Amino acid sequence: MSSPEVLGQFIPLHYHYDMLRDNYRMTSFQQAIAATVQPGMTVVDLGGGTGVLSYFAAMQGAHVYYVERNPELVEVAKRFLTMNKVSDRVTIVHEDAAKFVPPVPVDVVTCEMLHVGLVREKQTLVIEQFKQNYVQAHGTKLPRFIPEASLLAIQPVMQAYEFAGFHAPVPLFQPPVATVDGTTELGLPAIYSTIVYDEAYPQRIDWKGVLTMQSAGTLNGWRVVTKNVLAVLVEEQSEICWHNQYLVVPIAQPLEVNVGDRIEVALNYEFCTELSHIWDGISQRVCPNSLTKRLAA
Hints:
This protein is α+β, with helices and mostly antiparallel strands. It contains six helices and 18 strands. 37% of the residues are buried.
């Protein structure tokens, strides 16, 4: 069994500080909380980290239960929430988020234990355990979750693996933007799982799909895309989303593909495990009658 440190339970403090500088992440959650949380509501912030999501909810007039297992982060959050003058609206709970049961029914639960492909961090495990504990204590009506859902997709790409003339096909993180230098999209992303947090969901991926190539090139990587739907705005018929960083996983034996070629992809991995389980769990083969041929290794 992997240690809590490997799974992201105790991410180094500087990583949490760096996340505060991610304006896309910060504004997306701020907007989702502003659209969801109203004055007088009760909010639980599972794995509260530096306390920023608790701050956003408190600024909307809610009372917040900040829940965090890491003692260093608890002290950091106490200091930051006091500095931002919302400590009177936030109850600090130093406890494992998977074991926390709020003393009263709550309206909204925030949880940002998210990583690409839903590995490494404990988003799915913590929310599932929280739901079980909550139902036992307060009945079957669940609070609203932020995020409400995560959509996982895989996309065929041609990736440059050159570093100052050094060829090294390694997994690469990328910013979640339309165009990334060195990456050529060979086909559209295919959704392989949709996790809706207030519904039952599996804790592992076992999926096969066929992707049709939209462009010719060398298929030498799979890009894993994780889109988190933070809030669905029913009246506006829109949603507030935030994407994790993309992850490009190299293919050991690249394939030369043409437009219309079909590649069967299989994914098999567990959530909340080590990041390497994603690339260990991806395989592909050329579909029958496809004109694609393998390149020499």
